[in-house]
Amino acid sequence: MYSVFITRSLPDPIVEKIEQVAKVSMWEEEEVPVPQERLEKELEQADGILCLLTETIEEKLLLGADRLKIISNMAVGYNNIDVAAASKKGIMVTNTPGVLTETTADLTFALLMATARRIVESSTYLKNGKWQTWSPFQLTGQDVYGTTLGIIGMGRIGEAVARRAVGFGMNILYNNRSRNMEAEKQLGVIYTDFETLLRQSDFVCVLTPYTPETRNLIDREQLSWMKKTATLINTSRGGVVNEDALYEALVGHKIWAAGLDVFEEEPVPLNHPLLSLPQVVALPHIGSASIQTRMRMAELAAANLIDGLQGKKPKHLVNPAPSNIE
Ligand code: DGY
């Protein structure tokens, strides 16, 4: 029987499924990540692990992982794993694309609406007893209907956000590594260069994967191209946006607002300057956090893991399959 380590408490049906083929050891906590030492120890004896984006799996952690066949990440992003180091050891790495697309697009759009119409700020205003009267320009925000949305990264989630934006009568620009002709045809999205997108958009959604090439993709210069009335939404990874530059742009009123579901350091420290700004809506990385979607992600991560253990090519392999895999 195989040995599997699950790095966070998952629902019984998921664990039972894996137990049909493997002996399972699990970090039972829900709110505390597994300590690195425990992870390192488990990796020495595991044939497979099911992990989360909170686990940083670097080359040195894999040194003793001589039995490990598969790292199944319960996320679509896998920047937490050194894929090259895993590949060198013949370890498969998998992710969970597709099943979280619509849920993450919903949250992206929720952030867009919340920042445009100052939803969180307005609710806090009311709850803090500040609402004295209705007033013509009290808590006024920006229109969403009929404005221009710029999507950076026109993959599955980008397309799903664009579908929502069509319903709001938005003009949609996008930038991507390559043109998405299908999205252009189906959704009427328009490909533009990066600078034009930033200069013309009223809302910019960052949906590109986090790679060495996209680190600080949105930096001081890029923020300076944006309209004063524009909003930046990031539901990808914190490192794609330079947070110091974003803070400066917001404080200097160079852009209107920001909606952030992700941060360079997570959990974001409470004294982070961005959290002090009323025009920032900050969320604790909940893009895919619906009950149904998290179940689907766990099921898919389990299916990938089981395939890999059994020597089958998992459906969502992100690195080349080792030569002994069908
Ligand atoms: C992912 O799957 O990469 C998301 O960030 C998790 O919500």
From TrEMBL:
It holds the Pfam family 2-Hacid_dh_C. Keywords: Oxidoreductase. Residues 4-319 form the D-isomer specific 2-hydroxyacid dehydrogenase catalytic domain. Its EC number is 1.1.1.26. InterPro entries: D-isomer_2-hydroxyacid_DH, D-isomer_2_OHA_DH_cat_dom, D-isomer_DH_NAD-bd, NAD(P)-bd_dom_sf. It is an enzyme of class 1 (oxidoreductase). Residues 109-287 form the D-isomer specific 2-hydroxyacid dehydrogenase NAD-binding domain. GO terms for molecular function: glyoxylate reductase (NADH) activity. Belongs to the D-isomer specific 2-hydroxyacid dehydrogenase family. PANTHER family: 2-HYDROXYACID DEHYDROGENASE-RELATED, GLYOXYLATE REDUCTASE 1. This is Glyoxylate reductase.
